[in-house]
Amino acid sequence: MSTMAEPAKDEAKDKKALSAGARQERRLGWLLCAPAVIVMVAVTAYPICYAVYLSLQRYDLRFPDRAEFTGLSNYGAVLTSPFWWDAFWVTLFLTVVSVAVELVLGMGLALVMHRTLFARGTVRTAVLIPYGIVTVVAAFSWQYAWTPELGYLAGLLPSGDAPLTEQWPALWLIILAEVWKTTPFMALLLLAGLALVPEETLRAAMVDGATPWQRFTKVMLPLMKPAILVALLFRTLDAFRIFDNIYVLTAGAHGTGSLSILGYDNLFTALNLGIGSAISVLIFICVGIIAFTFVKLFGAAAPGAEVKR
User: Fold this and answer.
1) pTM of the prediction?
2) S-S: 145 plus which of 84, 153, 185, 231, CB 3.0-4.6 Å?
3) Res 216 pLDDT > 60
């Protein structure tokens, strides 16, 4: 009996030692993150709290002396307004389509950059050039390109067509501008994920008779899940808050306004700080829900995720 109990005791000691090491590593992680967290809280906490405060007020900047507390009435007004839901569905459409296209194109670019043997640095630099251009500058170039009688791309369309003045053509051109600008960012993140795939594993799959498509889907993609999660999360959160491309290309006209454009119009055009702040808080909540959903659905693939036993 005593000999049977000894391995159990040793195993318990090992688990306790491992748990103590894990706790120490977690404490070190918190200490390393603390300076950045403190700076982020100091910079963002006050604006967020003030936005929440304003969202509970009826506050028109044209009549500041008439400000009064209204509770959640601003949120009710926003969520029952067709303007909110029109902007929400436009934002959702732009986010889903642009991120999906960027993922496919970004994966293709990442594979090309990863396999390129000749002038690899030049190829990677050339691919990343669009991402290095300021978004507003890129948006103005696209606006000029599609301006009738002036733009070099507008000449490809039937005479007199102005795609930025119609809802669906304008939405697709906004997606085109987004994809052109941010696909290199997606490719860069996925390229880092390709570095996680051991060449020995690919060679072993090749020896076993796996086709290129099978090696990609059965070997590479599973090993790239952490990088894919990070790329999708970053781009989805960024795309959901889209503002500058829409503001430059259409200014939100013709049914192309996003949630950020709606918040801007209420805050800076209508000067309605109560409604505008409520829209901003709701956008913040939507972003939080998206991030939480990604982590919950794909958290097991996240970098540093612990395996539960």
Assistant:
1) 0.82
2) 153
3) yes
Q: Please report which confidence band the pLDDT of residue 308 belongs to, taking 50, 70 and 90 as the band edges.
A: very low
Can you name the residues that pair with 58 across neighbouring β-strands?
Answer: 68
The conformation of residue 151, written as its DSSP 8-state character, comes to -
* The two structure tokens encoding residue 11: 């195993």
The whole-angstrom separation of Cα 267 and Cα 275 is 8
| 152: three-class secondary structure by DSSP | coil
Average pLDDT on 158-170 reads 82
Quick check: 225 and 215 in contact, CB under 8 A? no
Rounded to 5°, the CA angle 168-173-178 comes to 125
Region of residue 237 (left: phi > 0; alpha: psi -120 to 50; beta: else): alpha
Q: Report the length, in residues, of the chain.
A: 309
Contact 186, 106 (CB under 8 A): yes
Pairing state between β 68-69 and 57-58: antiparallel
- In this predicted model, which residue has the larger pLDDT, 246 or 158? 246
